[in-house]
Write a structure and sequence with these properties.
Elements: H1 5-15, H2 23-29, H3 36-39, E1 47-48, E2 51-52, H4 57-64, H5 83-93, H6 95-125, H7 131-142, H8 147-150, H9 156-178, H10 185-201, H11 224-228, H12 232-247, H13 262-277, H14 282-298, H15 304-337
């Protein structure tokens, strides 16, 4: 196919550099100047500014990186005439990850629904008989009711923000893991074990409502000062939970259970997830765990032992899930390495 005028001009420009004096001039009169713009690069001096011509280390280093350049590049237009249809190829390429994320969302959503139902049914199954015991254990460990040690005007806004941010941080972490290209099945298994075994089942071992409901349960005025000086936001949500408790019904986020603390347990799970994604994130994640534990005590939602129990449950679940996945992976590799019988 013959080239157009513009294509031919471009080809000449690429193949033959534009110079003022051509090769035949150099043969007749020599190079009258060292300027490569006038004579071109062929035949130019091999010494530039006192540096002999050679392949520089930078060139060699960059050349060695060529195998790192992908073979295929995907270009997307920001001005697609049909933006919805333009997403179809992308959705097809990411379909396995999307399906995996939806699968985990369904499983975790079901686990959360069962956990909420179990919390709402606790008054009819076990009642709240462990509050006095847990309050006494806290007092024996700390020498006083620990909420007095964790209350601080400096920490009050930090505690409030931490408790508000717990939900988006926890489920935002889950979304990041679900849509990751890496396999985080061990983390999701540990989350399920923490929530279902430690929370949904474990809350019936030492059923308690927490210091914030201590007086409403008719157990005395031991935590009356805590409730009277509490953040109004906590008191408002406590009224919301108590209304459904008295009505014997269930609503969004209802159900009262203090032991073990799922706030602390899932904050510890977030710590493990941060370590798995990027190890430096574990430092702020650990500080976040401490803040959540302190906020749960200072606000009266939990006894101190609730948080300690939740942390132990999360650690045990993570250890068991990691160990199980490593064993299964080792078994799979062993089976694959056995030569087939001939």
């Amino acid at each position: 196919m013959p080239l157009s005028v513009d294509e031919a001009a471009c080809e000449r420009q690429l193949v033959r550099p534009a110079v003022i004096l051509a090769e035949h001039f150099d043969r007749l009169f020599g190079r009258v100047t060292s300027d490569e713009v006038i004579h071109g690069i062929p035949g130019s001096p091999t010494n530039h500014h006192g540096v002999p011509y050679s392949l520089t280390e930078e060139f060699v280093a960059v050349y060695r990186m060529h195998p790192l350049i992908p073979d295929d590049f995907l270009f997307r237009s920001l001005r697609a005439e049909r933006p919805i249809l333009a997403l179809v190829p992308l959705a097809k390429s990411e379909l396995p990850i999307i399906l995996r994320a939806l699968e985990w969302a369904a499983i975790l959503g079901l686990a959360l629904a069962i956990h909420g139902w179990a919390k709402s049914s606790m008054p009819y199954v076990t009642g709240y008989w462990a509050d006095n015991l847990l309050a006494d254990v806290d007092h024996a460990i700390f020498g006083t009711d620990p909420w007095r040690l964790f209350r601080s005007e400096l920490l009050r806004p930090i505690h409030a923000q931490a408790y508000v941010s717990w939900f988006p941080i926890t489920f935002g972490t889950m979304a990041i893991l679900a849509f990751s290209r890496k396999d985080h099945s061990a983390l999701f298994d540990s989350y399920l074990a923490t929530l279902v075994i430690g929370g949904t089942m474990g809350e019936h071992l030492l059923p308690s409502a927490g210091p914030i409901f201590y007086e409403r349960l008719g157990l005395g005025t031991r935590f009356a000062e805590l409730v009277a000086t509490n953040d109004p936001t906590y008191s408002l949500f406590a009224d919301y939970l108590w209304k459904y408790y008295q009505a014997g019904g269930a609503g969004l986020g209802t159900g009262i259970s203090a032991m073990p603390s799922m706030h602390v347990a899932l904050a510890v799970w977030t710590l493990f997830a941060a370590w798995r994604v990027w190890k430096p994130l574990a430092v702020p994640a650990f500080a976040y765990v401490l803040v959540i534990w302190g906020a749960s005590i200072a606000s009266g939602w939990h006894y101190a032992t609730d948080g300690l129990a939740g942390a132990l449950i999360a650690c045990a679940a993570q250890w068991a899930a990691t160990r199980t996945w490593k064993r299964d992976r080792t078994s799979y590799v062993s089976i694959e390495s056995v030569p087939a019988a001939t």
